[in-house]
Design brief:
Helix content: 40-55%
CATH superfamily: Glutaredoxin
Radius of gyration: 12 Å
CATH class: Alpha Beta
Shape: globular
Oligomer: single chain
Distance between the termini: 12 Å
C-alpha cells in the first residue's frame, strides 16, 4: 500500500464547487486538511490567503494541494490522478 500524499484544501463555506470537491475526497476515503477561508477572521484570514497565494496566485476556490501538485477547481479526474486513485 502506498503512503497517502498530504492533501490541503482551501475552500469557501458557501462555494458549491468546494463542497463537491470535499464530498469527492470524503467518498474516496482521503484524509485532508481543509481551511474554509471565509470563516476565518482578520489576521487568520489574511495568513490563510497569503499561504494560498503561494500555490494559486489568483486565489480562486477550491485550491487543492496534493503532495507537490496544485489543482484549482473541482477537477475530479485531476484529483484522482494526483492521489493515484
Amino acid at each position: 500500500m502506498t503512503e497517502q500524499k498530504s492533501v490541503r484544501v482551501f475552500a469557501l463555506s458557501t462555494c458549491s464547487h468546494c463542497r463537491d470537491a470535499r464530498k469527492f475526497l470524503d467518498k474516496s476515503g482521503v484524509n485532508y486538511d481543509c481551511t474554509e477561508v471565509d470563516l476565518l477572521d482578520g489576521k487568520e484570514q489574511a495568513a490563510a490567503l497569503e499561504e494560498m497565494k503561494k500555490y494559486n496566485p489568483g486565489c480562486t476556490f477550491p485550491t487543492l494541494v496534493i503532495g507537490d501538485r496544485v489543482i484549482v477547481g473541482n477537477r475530479q479526474d485531476e484529483i484522482k490522478e494526483a492521489l493515484g486513485l
